[in-house]
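pls read this stuff:
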Amino acid sequence: SLVGSEMCKETAPDRCAAEIIRTGRLARLDELRKDPKIQILELFSKVLNTGPSKALRYYQQGYRTLEQLA
């Protein structure tokens, strides 16, 4: 996943692992995924099979939908 791959490295990995084991989720990741920018970046990465840098570049150029990229 574009979001979360580096998240636990920045914080306490043991705490992240414990939360995931205990709840099956990571609250911080759930909150980030609600962010419209993150949703668009993940969509671009998934559907267009681009990496995070290229997805971010599209976003910074003003693209917000797949139709705009077509």
User: Anything to note?
Assistant: The CA atoms of residues 32 and 38 lie 7 Å apart. The mean pLDDT is 86. The helical segments are 7-10, 13-23, 27-32, 36-48, 52-60, 66-69.
